[in-house]
Amino acid sequence: DAGVIQSPRHEVTEMGQEVTLRCKPISGHDYLFWYRQTMMRGLELLIYFNNNVPIDDSGMPEDRFSAKMPNASFSTLKIQPSEPRDSAVYFCASSKTSGGRYGYTFGSGTRLTVV
Amino acid sequence: DQQVKQNSPSLSVQEGRISILNCDYTNSMFDYFLWYKKYPAEGPTFLISISSIKDKNEDGRFTVFLNKSAKHLSLHIVPSQPGDSAVYFCAASGKTSYDKVIFGPGTSLSVIP
Questions:
Q1: Which residues of A fall within a CB distance of 8 Å from B25?
Q2: Quick check: A42 and B106 CB within 8 A?
Q3: Mean pLDDT, residues A40-60
Q4: Using the beta-carbon criterion (under 8 Å), do B89 and A43 form an inter-chain contact?
Q5: Is residue B98 predicted with pLDDT exceeding 70?
Q6: How far is it, in rounded angstroms, from Cα A26 to Cα B97?
Q7: Which residues of A touch B39 (CB under 8 A)?
Q8: Closest CA to A94 of A33, A28, A5
């Protein structure tokens, strides 16, 4: 298995532009998570899905952020409009469970820079 | 308010010695505790976990100890190797199938050859 695949690896965009981050989870994993890593807040959970359905989006910072999972093999995280404070590394992870028993498998992340 | 705390942002250890990374938590309902390791430009990778019904779990050079009364856990790496240099995240989750994993801020470990 290729693991969790995220694209792009790096994204530089201007403030106000729309940004779309993509994720392909591991086949057979029913849970998909979007995390954001910053120096100030560490790894924070933005949203997670179970069987393509959003379960908890309480970590999504603002209405500018939206996430979708149209099928079991693909998810997107969109920021519209983007702002400089959105600059961070965004990770996607997948798992067989939502809890910690088996651990999550993370992708390599997308480093977003908004100028 | 942070439910999972790692009060040491960084730690340096000589190769061959023991590395001890500490973690404290506030939520007594946490059921599983995990450690992840992260290299630069990579995602975190799962290292080891422990259930709240145990006080120790060992996997090769890595041992996690849990002290529920103190709400404290630690990761011991013996012997430490230069390849262990990474950021280590402590994490915790609850019992139910909808409980998510909460991560600490991480501790950067440097193992000096």
A1: none
A2: yes
A3: 91
A4: yes
A5: no
A6: 19
A7: none
A8: A33
Q: Is the pLDDT of residue A20 over 60?
A: yes
Other CB atoms within 10 A of residue A20 CB: 15
Q: For residue B46, give the nearest of A35, A44, A103 by CB distance.
A: A103
Could you read off the pLDDT of A24-34 as tens digits, one per residue? 999 999 999 99
B1 contacts chain A (CB < 8 A): no
Residue of B nearest to A90 (CA): B43
Residue A111 has what DSSP assignment? E
Which tokens go with A37? 């890593």
Q: Which residues fall within 8 angstroms of residue B5, CB to CB, at 6 or more apart?
A: B23, B24, B25, B26, B104, B105
Report DSSP state, residue B100: P
Lowest average pLDDT, out of A68-77, A81-90, A97-106, goes to A97-106
Residue A36 with chain B: CB contacts under 8 Å = none
B32 to A100: CB separation less than 8 angstroms, yes or no: yes
Query: Please, which residues have CB within 8 angstroms of residue B53's CB and are 6 or more apart in sequence?
Result: none
User: With an 8 Å Cβ cutoff, is B9 touching chain A?
Assistant: no
Predicted pLDDT of residue A100 = 65
